[in-house]
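Dear colleague,

As promised, here are the two records you asked about, laid out in our usual form so they can be pasted straight into your sheet.

NAME FIELD: protein one
SEQUENCE, THEN STRUCTURE:
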Amino acid sequence: EVLKAATGLYNPVNQFLLYDCDEILQDNQSSDEEIEPSLSSGQAYILGDEICTKLSTSRLFLVGAGAIGCELLKNLAAMGSGLTVDADDGCIVLTDMDTIEKSNLSRQLLFRDHDVGEFKSVAAKAAMMRFSADCNVESYTSRVGEEEDGPFNDEFWSSGCDVVMNALDNIEARLFVDSQCVTHGLGLLDAGTLGPKGNVQVVVPHESESYGSSVDPPEPDIPVCTLKNFPYEVSHTIQWARDLFGGYFHRRPRQANDHVAEMANSEELSTFATSLIEKLGEDAALDMAKELSEDLGSIPFIVGTADTCDPEYVQAVKASSLKWAISQAHQLFFLSMNELIDKHPVDSLDDEGAPFWSGTRRAPKPLRFIPLDSEEDEVSAQQVIINERLSQFVRSAARLRMEMFISPDNGELSLIEPEEALKALEDDAIEKYKKRKSKEILHNLSGGGEQDAVSLILDELNGAKTGASFMPHFNLADFEKDDESNGHVAFVTAASNLRALCYSIPPADAMETRRIAGRIVPAMITTTGLVSALSCLELVKLLKGLPLTSHRNAFVNLALPFFAFTAPLPPEEISGMDGKTHTIWDRVVIKGSSKNPGQEMTLSRFLKKVQQSVKLGDNAEVSSISYGPYMVYANFLHSDDEELLSTSVLDMVKEAITSEDDDDFVESEERKGASQPEDSGVAVAKLGQKKYIDLSVTVEDLETGEEFELPPVRLMKGGIGR
């Protein structure tokens, strides 16, 4: 509220605001016994010794050490979490695979300038040790995900943590953590922010719905046609420019590196051209050949010694890069704009008879460089702006192009002065406008035969042979938003603002471009402080074992301001056989024989165990068994297969994973057309490390033919029980 008053931003709280959470207080007043002084002695006086002991002895798993993660760590340390002698009794387990960037420092309070480049989890632990040296913290840099082989395996989820606290920034990871909490019966606290907006969701084991039960839909992507031809917001032009950066300075140099050997061997060019057409199609193959010709047919390879100490080579690289940058600017902001207007004239109508250029569609304006002393064209004030922005684009693009040949570590070798870019544009202007490249004949391959296409592609590839014979290795650029000296944001800003000028869209400065291109999630430290505090209140409730009605999901918007608190919803009831119901938290546990704990259960015995466990009568039987996306058993195929019935369930699951026979029962409907997430050998190896396997079992009512899915059936391997 003080910041609102000082800045004039957002609406102040214009009423009395009270948040009452007295349900976390002690049921009875504290006794007169003296409380030992500690970091949380005041907390013990208010909440009681019992909850403070639980805080110090619980193993809390904090996923993420960003803005919310830093706030949560600070709070947990102040609350006395992990303050035990034995880390097995109480500990904060922290993981984050990201490293600290400069832009993080404004809102991630545990980090300082000297931490930039360090892993967030490592730096956050070090910061905690500075103000709570006795706190037990285990920090990891591992990703939490389904396909990861890190420390967070089934054993960790089943016995390595008591409560999970999410401080994540993506839905995929949230859903995975949520699934593990449901599978292992763990409490989950999920917090998120977006600028002044924040939310906290609490998942109470066996009592509430899960995070995945009511997850928000993902934000829609910008349509490709909008990015390519019809932008109407500066975010569209910035995303287009960001994609352009990736294509020019990462995809293309990697493409050249991958094919340089084939380009150097002239005998294999025709075979290579044919294979390109087979893989990509004629148009895409020709585009790729043109790119290879541009990148590998460049002048620098045939001038000088390809040595950064050779001034002749460096100058040749600079001249070639400037020429390339000017060519790209002409193609992007003049030729392509003209082509679009030729295809859809300003006064054209759409299929419904309405003006084509209406609504969000804006007719583009082609941009070209006109020298200030031009006698043919009038130079307006608007043209001066166009010239300046074209110069900025050429300067930044040529610099990054140079760094494909010359390592960025060589400092100022690749820097291009504004005067150099302007001079190159002026020298190029007369030649370019005489040739009138906008009227070049475009080859349309759609109706041509394969031989014609191969000839055209070979013409382009032949132009790449000279440069390829030197076997160069291009440097790749990964977009880095926080380094102001690398020219990455400068290129995206210049390209975006030129495209915005084409479509009469207000431009964006470098800071706004950095935020959008770098996908920086807007964060306010006041919002993260609020949702972290609310998360810690819900943590106390979870550890106290309070009923579901005492918990609160929170939804806030500090800008409006808006505060809403709702009790978590109970889990959805899923219909089963004979009117029975179950929820996502239920499991049917099947254990092996205690007399032969090392013996794996056969399919026949498993079917009988399931029949007994869920009390299926004679009028029902197991119709199918699946493990993830793999169908293991189907009664219409295998009910009379004595050999299969005597096979262990574990061996059947392994066979289903590794089998290539999808005509019978390997693949379920959900898996058809989907890509294999990991190698089958890896999946089988992971299966061998599990103490149990969760199976999806469907039963059939033999009288009605209706099928019902049971709760997940957990088969304990080798008779090992939990």
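NAME FIELD: protein two
SEQUENCE, THEN STRUCTURE:
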Amino acid sequence: GCESLLCAPSPKPDPGHSSTHCMLTLAAVMAPSLRLGTPARAASNQGAARMSSSAAASTSAPYGSWPSAVTAKFITTSGVRIGGLGCDDSGSVYWLEGRPQEGGRKVVVKYAPGAEGASERGAVDATPKDANVRTRVHEYGGGAHLLTPKGVVYSDFKSQRLFLAPAGGGDAVCLTPESAWPDGQYRFADARLTPDGRHLVCVREDHSPTADAKPSAVLNEVVSVALDGSGAMTVLATGADFYAAPRLSPDGRTLAYITWEHPSMPWDATTLRVRPLGPLATAEGAGEDETAASTAGHARVAGADAEGCMSDGDISVQQPAFSPSGALYFISDESGFWNLYRAPPDGGYASAVNVLPRPTDFGGGSPGWQFGQQGFAFLQDGRVVATYVDRGSGQSRLVLLDDVAAPTPSEFGSEEGLPFFFGSLVESSDDGALYMLGGSPQRASGVYRWSGLLPGGGGAAEMIACSSSSEIDESLVSVPRPVEFPAPMGTSYGYYYPPRNDAFTSDEAAPPLLVKAHGGPTAATSTAFNPAIQFWTSRGFAVLDVDYGGSMGYGRDYRRRLRGNWGVCDIDDVCAGAQHLVAEGLADPKRLAIDGGSAGGYTTLGALAFKDIFTAGCSLYGVADLGCLAGDTHKFESRYLDGLVGKYPEDKQLYDERAPINAVDSLSCPVLLLQGDEDKIVPPNQAELMHAALLKKGLPCALKMYQGEQHGFRKAENIEDALNSELFFFSRVFGIEPTPDAAPFDIDNMPA
């Protein structure tokens, strides 16, 4: 399913995915990614509270000082994160909930309205109350649970072991027991069930028996895991740096998977390979000869000839899946966009054709960051459904096609009753209806049911569960406007949110502007309803959410603008976006702020250090020293900077030139730093070094270190404090009277 950091961020998240990925982020504080992210009730939730403007007539007040009912506490207490959508064989609907009020714990739930103990979303927990369903493979995880006839198989965050929560209730059963290996040695993700129901096939990440392997020593493989509780495993693919999306043919005799090598990332150069499968290990005996597991001996279907290449001719292939007929589908950017391809089984899947050739990216918002993402799905009758975003309208579209080499596709959208945006398509095995995650810029996201493809079906999709228990009056909701603006490398894109609170007006010429730089950096923003943006706009700030050069969703050439240009293209674009709005009279040039998380934090610090556009900034777990990051991060991103900046240490001079920590002398404005003390992706020393340098320079600054937080904040109290602290910081810097919910704290070097 698609993890939505909704009303409860990256995420980054960390979204889990089983269908189209929707990057629906609460805010940088909730959406980890360095990556290097009007709430409305469901139809069944008639008791949801409405939050509205308290004044019948508008009052004149300075921009930024407007009191708002959209508080940080409202954001965390009124909602959850929803992702991981799926249906079991009986037609029951499940999803994954991230709960800020439980420290960010993730729980698989079953939709059972009216059942004893059902939540306001009509769901009951399907995993134990002490379980946190998360995997740490690649650190960003995803694909942490699987629905099976026996129950829910899930990865437990603390131990990283696999458990089975029985369908009929009862205690969870450990499938990978302590007698087999110590806690933390193995991590598992993206599992699929073999047709006989006796094994899982998944990605395994080996961190050594002491669970402390250096990134270069971490071993990634595709393995089978027996479901008999023995922990017996068979290695099925090995020898490459990375693996993802192991998928089985309907008869279980063929395994397909994606693989790639350093220094590539999955959106750079990957290869789709297939291999035949033999017997798999169980408690009774070993499986097939593991010498057959070498990736070098497995047939190449599509993608890069050399998985480690980083050239203009490389190809990214992702999201393989077998149709009921046995054809192998996948997305590939060989055409310049991530289009959908079909490879028939005849001839070893060697004759793949592009079945949806068009200048648009399929596959979701940010393919490759997490496991389990899928931008298309198969219906029981064999047809294929896929989704994409129409860049002209910003709306999602559904494409329906037959499972043939030259299909004639049909399209559906909001005019046929679909939500403004949607993803994570799952067909019910019960009645054939489509379930999906969806929403709009004005409405909190949730789980929808749509019968538009059924005979005699149609009408608007029904929201059966909403991520938010409360509703914000439309008088407080700012609707984003797509903007294009000139930048040094060509046209760039973003979404402008004007100030909106109908209880207030302002006599000032233009509002303060907050520019948001998304994480990644190879990721994208979204127009999904984001209460953390409404937090700002309902107080009188304008917001510009920028899809700078290098962002996903605009084709391969736009994505490749960032090659060798991180710290150049992204910084140029956020500055160009702010200047464009100033020129249009939509932003006050003296009150231009910028924030971002992770890679967006680096763009924030770089824009403050290397340009003279912004007058304040906030970096959330951002990168300050590129050289330190190159030598001190996890395996998945340990060579990411080779493509973004250059090889390290060969290009150390370039790293030093682009490191904000080395340009503090050129900084001239206040900076707030927010950081988790357990962050393994951007270690805390990055923020500490930057804070020390800012203190020495005498600039107004502050560092807040959140205990027990990792890459992205998941605890409600920390999410709230981060938002309120940023509000207080910008209010003080811009001379705005802080609203009552701003969290006062000491700002270093700030005059009283």
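A couple of things worth noting about protein two: The chain is about 10% helix and 30% strand. Confidence is low (pLDDT under 50) at residues 1-52.

Best,
R.
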